[in-house]
Amino acid sequence: MTTAEMIKELCEQMNISVSELARRIGQTPQNFNKKLKRETVTLDELKAIAYVLGVRFEQAFVLPDDDEIKISNE
Asked: Which of 9, 54, 60, 64 is the residue whose CA sits 20 to 30 A from 46?
């Protein structure tokens, strides 16, 4: 699943449009949709999305021994 697909799925589950999400993170819907199409959403934008929707964002590197190094918005 791409980042754009995950964001769209999150919007559906949170009952919010992608355009409204864009406005809540301080972007125009047009600009944000371009970022989704190009897959150029930044880590800071993903953290902002999590913040405005009240969800947790995590990203991790998984090491060979299955330990993880996580990046989180908490």
From this structure: 64
Whether the full predicted model's pTM is greater than 0.70, yes or no, is yes
> The domain 3-72: what is its CATH number?
1.10.260.40
Q: Give the CA dihedral 69, 26, 52, 31, nearest 10 degrees.
A: -70
Instruction: Please give the pLDDT value at position 71.
Output: 75
**Rounded distance between C-alpha atoms, residue 66 and residue 74, angstroms:** 22
Segment 31-54, tens digit of pLDDT: 999 999 999 999 999 999 999 999
Domain range summary for the chain, segments of one domain joined by +: 3-72
